[in-house]
Amino acid sequence: MTSPIGEDDLAAWIDGRLSPERQRLVDAYLESQPDMHARLREQAEQARALASLFAPIADEPIPATMRVAAIRGRQRQPRWQLAIAASLLLTVGFGGGWSSARWSGEPRAGIAALANEASDNFRVYAADRIRPAEIGPDQRAMLIRWTSARLGERVTIPDLSTAGYRYGGGRLVATPHGPAALLLYDGPQASKLAVLTRPMQIDKSASMTSTSSGTMGRVTWAVDGIGYSVVGERPAAELHPIADEVRRQADAGLVS
Prior knowledge:
This protein has 9 helices and 6 strands; from the N terminus they run H-H-H-H-H-H-H-H-E-E-E-E-E-E-H. By secondary structure, it is α+β, with helices and mostly antiparallel strands. The protein has 3 domains: about 5-60, no CATH class; about 65-105; about 110-255, Phosphorylase Kinase, domain 1. It has a 6-stranded antiparallel β-sheet with strand order 1-2-3-6-5-4, sandwiched between helices. A hairpin with a 2-residue loop joins strand 1 (about 165-175) and strand 2 (about 180-185). Helix 1 (about 5-15) crosses helix 3 (about 35-60) and helix 5 (about 80-95) crosses helix 6. The longest helix has 25 residues, at about 35-60. The protein is globular and about 70 Å long. The relative contact order is 0.10.
């Protein structure tokens, strides 16, 4: 018996990883869903564009210093030479830019990284006047199924109407730590707000932290391995009550 078309099939269709038989089934299904077909075709084109962009890097020859013979040659160096080289590296590193790069660079993990991912995606999509959301507000159930399947966790769409924000749709976005769900909201006087959520590898439980990036305020936290960041062009202190409401609804498993 043929299994129904699921989110994994749609993701594999985008990536071109379906078997010929499954490809025909998904193609037939998408022919009956023109809106979905158009969205997935656009995502597939974006994926191919990214692949072609980085193809020259993937095709570059391995640097000579990273070849096996060179590595083995370094391994045969006397230990005293290696010790001197290591001490020089530490001296130069801590005396120069290495130390500042290590401590003042962009955070690479945890809720600090999540906050940056939220503001980066907010800059890209909240300013998009044509198509900020991949899936509109009238297709909430579809967005929940899609993002929950890709994140491996139940995604909820908070109702922020009491704070003056109307849900405007959402999308799946890429981060250095895997996929994330981006939920977009329209507020008073054309203001925008977004909620970014994804699984956390570290900082799996973290209290709310208020930060800023330029004109944007951010409130970020994590509960039971799931991170959340509320971002908008308002001071973080003004976003805190909204973040409290997002957390309340997420903890209760409410879906608007």
